[in-house]
Amino acid sequence: MTAEKKICARIGMVYYINVAPIHETWKEQVRNDSWQLVEAHPSALNKMLASGEIDLGFVSSHEYGMRPERYRILSDLSISANGAVGSVFLFSQVAPEQLTGLTVLLSSQSKTSVSLVKIILELFFEVNPCYIEAEVRDARRKNVAAVLAIGDDAIRLKRDGFYPYCLDLGEVWREHTGLPFVFAVCAVREDFCSRFPEQTDQIHQTLIDCRDRGTDDLPRICALAAPRIPMDISSCHTYLSGIEYDLNVDKQRALTTFFTYLINLKDISVGALPLKIRYLR
After folding, report:
1. Pick from 204, 228, 235: nearest CA to 24
2. CA 149 to chain centre
3. In the predicted model, is pLDDT for residue 201 greater than 50?
4. Which of 156, 179, 217, 221 could join 254 in a cystine, given CB atoms 3.0 to 4.6 angstroms apart?
5. What's the first-to-final CA gap in the chain, in angstroms?
6. pTM
7. What is the pLDDT of residue 1?
8. Rounded CA separation 33/45 (Å)
């Protein structure tokens, strides 16, 4: 067995339904014993990529901005939306313009969404709430005015209809910037891609292939994924049709705009710009 065969590349995959076209296709079709799929929510994958517990994978855009010297962004891959995303919401008991001084509970599962909701509330709506970080399921017990929920939790909470106000953060971002929003990128550690460039390319191409096959076969993917919420297949299809997985020029501009906001807020490293994108060779 060659040295290359012995390498176990550890690949982070978000287990939310919004990545189902890539995730389900990978599970069905990818057979490579040297590749280990690691499934977790975004903030867990962020920590694993930062610590070297995984080598590459989908992580919050914010994670790249925090430690850009450690990573490169794999081209043509993201989790993004050009407007409403359908799974990143601010749910509120009062109008967002009235949240100054009130408590907003922030999901701990995505740093990108936390940063985005702060930009939207503080810069776009010009309010200054108090923030706490906790589990979304604790929101009613803690009697907060509003709650940021993402992923499958957000879909379930919207379906429940408990909160009178519901802001889709992707839609609000689009209204104020005219741009799509990139919630997650596929990042690879610099040390891994420099040591194993061929393997990095192989995994990169496989992720793109899974994306293309999964989005082309969306009705079947929805039949697999919808019971996890649970939601009906038609609603799942509508939702997943609004998620985009590429990283085109507009999305690169959107990522640059987001990072510019965060650099000005001193929330991420100035080294986040310009973007370091690794293209397939």
Report:
1. 228
2. 13
3. yes
4. 179
5. 26
6. 0.93
7. 40
8. 21
